[in-house]
TrEMBL record:
Domain of life: Bacteria
Keyword DNA damage in annotation: no
Keyword Flavoprotein: no
Span of the signal peptide: 1-21
Protein name: DUF1264 domain-containing protein
Organism: Pseudoduganella flava
Organism lineage: Bacteria, Pseudomonadati, Pseudomonadota, Betaproteobacteria, Burkholderiales
């Protein structure tokens, strides 16, 4: 994975154009509160010069996907991930509701390899959602990089899993977000069948970011050969208000 990230970094440097410069996705809600005072702005400027932000370095991989909440599947969010690959088996991501400077941080996701997932205690596995459906459907994307690099990145994430908590309902399709993070954090899941995403959710993202999800799905068809049955694929099967159909190559490891 590290060589993929190095390649992406080199591409970004050569192009000198970040993904957000071409296509922006602003948040739909802002936090309640008074505007920053002059004193706060001065303190921020001083902190920027004098303090280190070392833990934030390395969050260089930008992904966009979708999350239904496991206990409330019709609560679905577009999630902008900024990820740091710590080693070949583990990445950590900060989640936002957009990719602009005023985007709201609304969650976190940890990503682990199939090998790491197999080491988890059985009771822990219920918190980790499978990724093959997101990849093979074309819904998970890495905006702004060449398609060949994006596909190579997706190949490294085949059969991986994510543990995602959303801490703020900043809005989802057809619903206005809340002005502050309220209530308990919600465990998020993944889409594993066609039709699970609410109508318009994927299309809105595609329009804003200039993405063709259907084309990506066709281009990734050869990745099906790498797909193994995964835990949790059928966790939400039948819990949506719409008919759903299987995504080719996406199967549950517990299926008979």
């Amino acid at each position: 994975m590290k060589h993929i990230i190095a390649t992406l970094g080199a591409l970004a440097g050569a192009l000198s154009v970040p993904a957000v410069a071409q296509h922006s996705s602003p948040p739909s809600v802002g936090p309640a509160g008074a505007p920053k005072s002059a004193q706060t702005q001065v303190l921020e400027a001083g902190a920027k010069v004098l303090q280190s932000a070392a833990p934030m370095r390395g969050f260089d991989v930008y992904l966009v996907g979708f999350h239904p909440m496991k206990d409330a599947p019709e609560l679905q969010m577009e999630a902008h991930h900024y990820c740091h690959q710590r080693n070949e088996d583990f990445a950590q991501c900060i989640l936002f509701d957009g990719n602009t400077a005023d985007a709201n941080m609304n969650g976190i996701e940890y990503i682990i390899s199939e090998k790491a997932f197999q080491l988890l205690p059985p009771d822990e596995r219920k918190y980790w959602h499978p990724h093959n459906g997101e990849i093979l459907s074309g819904q998970l994307v890495a905006p702004g990089i060449p398609e060949v690099a994006e596909k190579a990145l997706m190949k490294t994430k085949m059969n991986s899993y994510g543990k995602t908590w959303h801490t703020w309902n900043t809005g989802h399709e057809g619903h206005t977000g809340e002005a502050l993070p309220l209530g308990e954090a919600k465990l998020a899941w993944s889409f594993n069948r066609d039709g699970e995403a609410m109508p318009g959710l994927v299309q809105k993202r595609d329009r804003q970011l200039g993405i063709d999800t259907a084309a990506k799905r066709r281009d990734r068809a050869d990745l099906r050969a790498l797909a193994k049955p995964q835990s949790g694929v059928d966790a939400l099967n039948g819990k949506f208000a719409r008919p759903t159909t299987p995504i080719p190559g996406v199967t549950d490891s517990a299926a008979k």
